[in-house]
Amino acid sequence: MKSYRVAKNIPVPEPRGRRKLYEFPELEIGESFLVTSKSEVYAARKRMKSKGQEIVSRRMGDDSWRIWRAN
Asked: CB–CB of 24/50 below 8 Å?
């Protein structure tokens, strides 16, 4: 049978969590920001939805989208 050594007073490390690929700004209703890829639009929509917020996005040119907070 395998035996284990018991230790006391060893602090639990802080959780590392998952690294965020995109750091989006906190928005008030009506505020917006510009992104340069469709994948950023999808990521922002997912992140905002998880917070109970909605966004509206529009293509602004060949390679940029503007994202507004809607609620």
From this structure: no
CA atoms within 13 A on the CB side of 31: 8
Question: Pick from 43, 50, 49: which is nearest to 70 by CA?
Answer: 49
Domain boundaries, the chain: 32-69
> Using CA atoms, how far apart are residues 25 and 51, in angstroms rounded to an integer?
13
Residues above pLDDT 90, as percent of the chain: 63
pTM for this model (two decimals): 0.69
DSSP 2-69: -------S-PPPPP--PPPS--PPP--TT-EEEESSHHHHHHHHHHHHHTT--EEEEE-SSS-EEEEE
